[in-house]
């Protein structure tokens, strides 16, 4: 009887040890991080640095997979068919929270994503070619008013923050613009420098082209002027009560085990603090914007509500 009891205790101890070893074993293979924009742009470059840092901490590579298009929502959609094991992660741009209001989908952005952490946001602005007759924001507004629907501008995609914010600006000004969507900053840069569009609304991936004398910044969208472009006024300075920095972070599939999401959170948080990541962000006037799992989940709930108001205001609801 005693011997049987000892055998049962030993078996139970082995089972507990096995479960513990499995929990500690994560990750046992490379992790895929799907991002919403093409290679070569600000999101890709900064997220690759973050992934490299996190991979060193986790002991397994974090591999970037670019899935541009659909207003930045493809990575989040991929989570809906991915195993909840922590090996598929996705960038969650703000456009994800607008999706149910503009497109028929069978999942909920708040309930069907495990929010790991928020990492940063963008610095946005509107630029024109350096040789454009539009020299400043007053010229932009004057041309738009005199030529309804003829002032063409590009963005990184339909229903992205640059698109919707520019349409909100146009609505406040009482003007009609001609929107041309692109898949990402790289394609948008080719279009505006090639003379295919008159203006571009984007994150400050356009900075090298401004510094090279090819583009001119008309405004920026933060709370205060950017150090890199001190002469460019904010929207608030121009009389438009708008601030847009479009925070984004990392999500995992719904029902990913809490110990796995915590491991991922801890690794990416530490990766954010590495000077190499802070320096990568600084290239594009971006700043770390950390939210933990609970804070990020609350942000998702609040943003889901506020984005409905924006979509309704612009008359874009399905």
Description:
By secondary structure, the protein is of the alpha/beta class. The chain has 2 domains: about 30-120 and about 245-315, Bordetella uptake gene, domain 1 (D-Maltodextrin-Binding Protein, domain 2); about 125-220, 3-Layer(aba) Sandwich (D-Maltodextrin-Binding Protein, domain 2), CATH 3.40.190.10. About 40% of the residues lie in helices and about 20% in strands. The chain is built from 11 helices and 11 strands. It has helices spanning about 1-25, 40-60, 75-80, 100, 135-145, 160-175, 185-195, 205-210, 260-270, 275-280, 295-315, and strands at about 30-35, 60-65, 90, 115-120, 125-130, 150-155, 180, 200-205, 215-220, 250-255, 290. The strands form 2 sheets. A 6-stranded mixed sheet has the order 2-1-3-10-4-11. Strands 7-6-8-5-9 form a 5-stranded mixed sheet. The longest helix is centred in the first third of the chain and has 24 residues, at about 1-25. The model is unreliable at about 15-25 (pLDDT under 50).
Care to give the gist of this entry?
With 318 residues, the chain is of the alpha/beta class. It is 42% helix and 18% strand.
How confident is the prediction overall: mean pLDDT?
92
Low-confidence runs of at least 5 consecutive residues:
14-23
Shape type = globular
CATH architecture of the largest domain: 3-Layer(aba) Sandwich
What's the CATH class label of the largest domain? Alpha Beta
Going by CATH, what is the homologous superfamily of the largest domain? Bordetella uptake gene, domain 1
Range of strand content: 15-25%
SS-based class = alpha/beta
Reported by name, the CATH topology of the largest domain is D-Maltodextrin-Binding Protein, domain 2
User: What is the gyration radius calculated from CA atoms?
Assistant: 23 Å
Number of strands: 11
- Helical amount: 40-55%
Q: Count the helices. How many? A: 11
What are the secondary-structure elements, in order, as H or E? HEHEHEHEEHEHEHEHEEHHEH
Biggest sheet details: 6 strands, mixed
> What number of domains?
2
